[in-house]
Amino acid sequence: MLDRDLAAEVLRAARARGGDFAELFVEERIGLSVRLDDGRIEEVTTGQDRGAGVRVGHGASYGYAYSNRLDRDALLQVAEAAAASITGGGPGTVVDLRTLEPPVVHEATREAAGVAVADKVAWVREADDAARSLSPEVRQVASTYGDSVQRVLIATSDGRWAHELRPRIRLTVSVVAGRDGVIQTGFHGPAGLAGAEFMEANPPARTAEVAARRAVAMLDSVPAPAGEMTAVLAPGMGGVLFHEAVGHPLEADAVHKEASVYRGRIGEVLASPILSGVDDATVPGAWGSFSFDDEATPAQRTILFADGVLRGWLYDRIRAGTDGVESSGNGRRQSYAHPPIPRMSNTYILNGASSPAEILAGTERGVFVTSLAGGQTNPATGDFVFGCSEAYLIERGEVTTPVRGANLIGRAIEVMSNVDAIAADFDIWPGVCGKDGQGVAVGSGSPTLRISRITIGGTGA
Amino acid sequence: MPELADLCATAVEAAEGEEQVEAYAEERTSTEVEAHRGEVEGLSFSGSRGVGVRVIVGGRLGFAYAADPTEDEVRATVARARENAALATPDEHNVLPAAGPIEPLDGLFFESLAALTTAEKVPVALEMERVATTADPRVAKTDAVRYGDAVGSVAIASTAGVRAEYRGTGCWAVVVTLAERGDETQTGHSFKIARRLEDLDPTSVALEAVERSARMLGATKPETARVPVLLDPFAASSFLGVLAGALSAEAVQKGRSLFASLVGERVGSEAFTLVDDGRLLEGPGAEPFDGEGVASGRTELLTAGTLNGFLHNTYTAHRGGTRSTGNATRGYRSTPGVGSTNLFVQPGERSFEELLRQADGGVLVQDVSGVHSGANPISGEFSVGATGLRIAGGALGEPLREMTIASTVPEMLRAIAAVGSDLRWFSSIGVPSILVGEMTLAGI
Fold first, then answer.
1. What is the pTM of this model?
2. Which residue among A112, B314, B352, B424 is least enclosed by CB atoms within 10 Å?
3. How far is the C-alpha of B362 from the C-alpha of B27, rounded, in Å?
4. Between chains, do B89 and A224 touch, taking CB under 8 Å as contact?
């Protein structure tokens, strides 16, 4: 993409006025997507993007600039702009760029770009057919297939030189089901850091059936009850809650701005003693994984909670520098157009000792949440709200009537402390997490777990 | 670097035979300054440009885009779009709009903004941070203080004869403050957008965030009750976003709108009139033409609660046997969808203070969370988290947190008792305070 001599020249220009370090991030991304809606292949799109960003770090602050152009003149201009915010320093050094070995490589065994576009069109058709044949109540199906390869090169003034190829693939299905004026929706969208082999392991028909079954099941739903009660979260869903309500306040930028409910509380018991959780970018082929983060720090596994005890933060380079520690490898960015900030990768609650059958059977009355529509958290207060797109009542240990319009509302520390049972049936839920206007691929994961008391917002009795 | 208009012309010249080709090009340079603890925490400069090409052959649509292409790369992009078209389902409604007259729209571009230097922008963020951390003893910290601006231009050309371009400027201020008392922390947000710095008033943004965080200190979870709910413009704007999705003809034609069969019917209170106006300069979304080169216009979607129609681009208009309303929205990385330009609730007569008196015994909701996930755009059902303040004796009282509001969009529209005169813009959505008759606020 760029030779070492030019990279070193750009880094030297970026350090012309000093600063603690300079970093060059070069990226090329090529992608293809196929969108089916209303039974028609609406659109086949190919996209090609490239650019380079230069950052100069100085204490807790930074300057950043980027350009679409990769020629020498454009890169030197970008370096000069990034250096503009640094004042009163002499030129800084750039040490020899040395290739870093990745701790883990996420390789496509079958490159998606090598698969004929016609075959990809057939995948979304397969999803459409499978969803429609599941039930005559399926009214509408939309399915999108997408693959991309992001080629990254990172060079830093302290000598990092890292290359990575990140192949991403995803097929999503949204289904609308209707009956007598009642309309419900269902969604499913497995995703991986992988090649076309991912589609063999996750056949489109199966993805479509999951989405269609969700939509059809919710046609029988009654308004959710409101008030405090027990909630059992299906595999993966506890991970979504953990990501939003716990993970975001553990990102070091929130902590440094004193906008984290966990600030200054490392070592305290702030979750149930049966709960352990990690952020792990090394999981092979997982949607939120990578070999290096976007600052060329090798991917790693960070323990967030061990038996309920808060253990650590998620760091990028600048915040780690301020605290005098090593980065945890969580400096990520959406693209060359954005400076890196602390972000999660794959955030998982680890398996416990119960079984899902045991957990449900031991629940007298509550709500069983099988799909969350997403949520919002205020990291400073820990307050969160989650919409449930698929949920059921639990009555005398049995999963009974589906309920709609339910949301989970609470505060992170209290709710995580109320987890009183965790099963061993771990599963994941891929997503795109938005923060400060940047979207990055993240994985959430958990086994079935139970929260003894949480507020359910609903319209029913 | 080639001009945007020249890149578009190159794409159109590459058309073969009967095929229709359209190129849409964008360019944008932007600066953001982030301030924290009296210093510049982040200073970002960006420059990006790109071209997206649609090729339609026999009703089949293909699309491809490229970042900062040369003229040769534009021709290669046309070729890729052509290959993609061969795999799509033919659809007679895939057509490019014919070129029509476009009235220029003056007042989108300000040289004074385009000419600002970094040295002039940095103090704006620093001053906002200073005001935000010194105006109230309970508010000494900020979560985010950001000044940003952008200069952008758009060009479009097609084999149907469209040739148009325009440029614009914009700037914005974002402040998120932290109010503290003992162990308790409350956050407050504020935001403003303008076309030039002279109209931004960043100090007022900082002061508003301070007030919104400080007044939430001591918030408690209330008892569940059915009370009048006054949505302030911040809270109301969240709901308007959901409504906007349901008023797109694309959602209607795909069976994804709760308003599909309700044209001509009363769907909301008489107090509620909703307009999309792409030529309204007060709105940040103003543009002379849309993402397909169709002239922007004014569409009254709801008049005194009665639904008149939907927003259209060329595809949905052709399919629905009507005319495009000039609401094709896009960037160079995507094909045109349907979206609002400046979508706003027609302001009413009453001031915020008058609405407070009218809502006596109720609750002012200042923030709702989870609307994007908690609202079903098809059924209109929603259940969201809310924070706010009690209204007692026509004034704001004790702060409340951890409330949920569950209802449906149609129910809420019908229950609107009054709309305030305090219209405010949030990116391209404009809303005043809205008094909803009675809703259930779930707490303990």
1. 0.87
2. B352
3. 48
4. no
